[in-house]
Write a structure and sequence with these properties.
single chain, alpha/beta, Phosphoenolpyruvate Carboxykinase, domain 3, Phosphoenolpyruvate Carboxykinase, domain 2, 3 domains, binds guanosine-5'-triphosphate, binds sulfopyruvate, binds manganese (II) ion
Amino acid sequence: MTSQLPALNQWVAEIAQLTQPDHIHWCDGSDAENTQLIEQMLADGTLLKLNESTHPESYLHRSHPDDVARVEHLTFVCTTEREDAGPNNHWMAPDEARAKMRALFAGCMKGRTLYVVPYCMGPIDSPLSRCGVEITDSPYVVANMRIMTRMGQAALARIEREGQFVKGLHSTGDLNPERRFIMHFPESLEIQSFGSGYGGNALLGKKCHALRIASHQARSEGWLAEHMLILGIENPQGEKHYIAAAFPSACGKTNLAMLIPPEGYVREGWKITTIGDDICWMRPGKDGRLYAINPEAGFFGVAPGTSAKSNPNALASIQRNTIFTNVAVTDDNQPWWEGLDARVPVTDWKGNPFNAEAGTPAAHPNSRFTVSAKQCPSYSPEAEAPQGVPISAIVFGGRRASLVPLVFEARDWTHGVLIGAAMGSETTAAATGAVGVMRRDPMAMKPFCGYNFADYFTHWLSFDKAGAKLPKIFHVNWFRKGDGGDFLWPGFGDNMRVLEWMLKRVAGSVGSQETPIGHLPNPADINLDGLELGDEAMQKLFDYDRAGWAAEFASIGEYLEEYGPRMPEALKAEQQRIHEALS
Ligand code: GTP
Ligand code: SPV
Ligand code: MN
């Protein structure tokens, strides 16, 4: 098969010439094609069948133990000018990167099949959507892309119509971390990924296209590509609002997007619906509001911590038709991970007998499930709306054991952009490297912004113009700890209480406490019925520590300075104003 687009056929032919596959398969996305691929992966051990009666049509994939997370130190943005990639990215000159990758890809698909995977990020009929084609030699990638994107025939038809698409080339190679690179060429809409089969490194529609390439493209076209969940919230009067929230990897997006409100709220008629759990593309509509789509069609969610208590919607979603990666297995062949329930698994994520005494987790901390969004009970048909949904509030948040209160609100857009730019969070298992180290992760985009953060902040500021009806901006922290080391806020479903306060602020129906860091809630305005928060929790969740924040703002100032003269003056001025007010 070939396509009706000569440029696509020619590219596939060139790559085949370079990589030397035994076969070429153009993916149509059909059930029959998927069944055939699954059978092949079961036969060669790439997939293991899980318990058919408890988890129908579900499979386990064990990745190479050295290939379990994103590799930020091997991820590059290859712009012509180094400064355009910025201090926030690793950079390589495009020619050098191409030569390096060419050597790795040469002959790498001998004995393998080259799959051509056309995909659409976003609803097929949405003007906000963008298409790409991933060439890969991994059937696991094909099966995942089929769940995570609109993959196959319909996407190819749109690509043929539009003539433009992101070119993604991927090979698992020999999985040697020394020969692993994830290269982005945003100026020519190209991605080249070699040596990893893991999610964000290999499913090129996700972080590589929908964030790194798209953010670059969005800057020149006047929109935003963000690491954000999107949820709908309906009050008992039937009014509906949409909220987009940026939290760093493994910091609560999937959980918030699928939130089930506390009982009292459900009884009153509050409802939460899920539009997306990881990526949000937004642009101003004719009415001046920001409209958002979820470019993805599935969830590649963190398994550990997912339980009937923490996230019943996620758990319900993954009872069938799910690919699990690097989870443990019980004696009756069910998938298992830490935090699921009290059972003890028999096999760990590497396939070895599980030894509970050893003190190492049975499931990898970054083990994941891949499932169609349509299987989520709270998934909303509005996620398919070509025009997107209007955003009423943007939320930034990080994992901060100390200093940062439960919630505060920006005074205006510029202050909100600074709050996003100053975000800090403790690192997680979603990327290789140390876990629990506090780092700046502006707008949860540190690993994902395809250009210089200074230009990115300028772009964010540019949305504040005549006629714009911008969302309010908030900051949350679900992860504040007490002196004893425990989380002070119950989190999960109870985060609804904070969302309700945000909507009251959007409606202008409650006041707040003015502080230099922003508007803090009057605790009486947040519904805490049924919660037992002690004095330490009340104080740390709702107060702010002036001296601590003065030190934080000094550090934020130093961070902004690292970007040199490209950093927008308005942001620096805002930082200085607040720093002075704190001292
Ligand atoms: P990526 O898919 O990596 O981008 O992550 P994500 O932001 O979707 O993270 P996810 O919702 O999967 O959360 C990851 C971890 O945070 C899990 O271990 C959760 O149990 C934990 N978590 C999520 N929400 C809360 C919360 O409100 N409070 C606490 N204490 N932990 C939470
Ligand atoms: C993340 O790390 O933020 C993820 C998983 O959502 S991955 O697709 O691997 O990037
Ligand atoms: Mn993510």
